[in-house]
Amino acid sequence: GTLYIKAGNHGTNLIDQYIENYTFTGGGSTINVKNSFGGEIRFLNAVNGTGTNLSNDIIILNNSVYVNSSKTGLNKSANITLYNIGTYTVASAYRDGVICPSSICSNLQNLNGGNYSFSVTGFSNYSIGELNNSNITDCIELSYPNLVYTLTQNINSGGTCFNITANNVTLNGN
């Protein structure tokens, strides 16, 4: 069968579900997707569209949340919570394995018990990690003291790209 959610039916919770075919009609609906062991995604804007495997388009694992961003109807802002991933001295949200720019990831909170939550403006692959030596690929705020930020690619910006707001920050352009 097909999961069918009519436009405007907001707040549907999909918990520990394997769902193949899906249809979110018209302007869509807000949904919450939860893996009881890995975490949850609470979409802040209505999702819409169709697909042949929702469980492949939205994957929540231990310290990893992925939404297929090529499915534009699913590529919406959301609040992410990751469960039981341990504790970090200085935690950071990561996007595709590098520190997530503050323009995309915000409001990182340690919820205790190894659980963390944060907000994102759109999707890719997100996780939480220790903020030691951080590779950066985009303009971000350099807000952690005693940290080496290393550029891993050229960055072009029409305005301020790096805002240093902490002591003992190293920006390595290598």
Overview of the molecule:
- The chain is mainly β and 174 residues long.
- The protein is built from 1 helix and 19 strands.
Explain the layout of strands and helices.
Blueprint: E1 3-5, E2 12-15, E3 22-29, E4 31-35, E5 39-43, E6 47-51, H1 54-57, E7 58-61, E8 64-67, E9 78-82, E10 91-95, E11 98-99, E12 105-110, E13 116-120, E14 125-130, E15 134-136, E16 140-142, E17 148-151, E18 162-164, E19 170-172
Parallel strand pairs: 1-3, 2-4, 15-17, 16-18, 17-19
Antiparallel strand pairs: 3-6, 4-5, 5-9, 7-8, 8-14, 9-13, 10-11, 10-14, 12-13
Keywords, please?
174 residues, 1 helix, mainly beta, 5-stranded antiparallel sheet, 6-stranded mixed sheet, 48% strand
Structure summary, number of beta strands: 19
Order of helices and strands: EEEEEEHEEEEEEEEEEEEE
State the strand order across the main sheet. 2-4-5-9-13-12
Ends: how far apart?
Answer: 53 Å
Radius of gyration: 18 Å
Principal-axis shape equals: elongated
Tally the helices.
1
Largest pleated sheet = 6 strands, mixed
As residue ranges, the low-confidence spans are: none
Helical proportion, percent range: under 10%
Structural class: mainly beta
- The share of residues in extended strands comes to over 45%
**On the 0-100 scale, what is the average pLDDT?**
91
Explain briefly what this protein structure is.
This protein is mostly beta strands and 174 residues long. 2% of the residues lie in helices and 48% in strands.
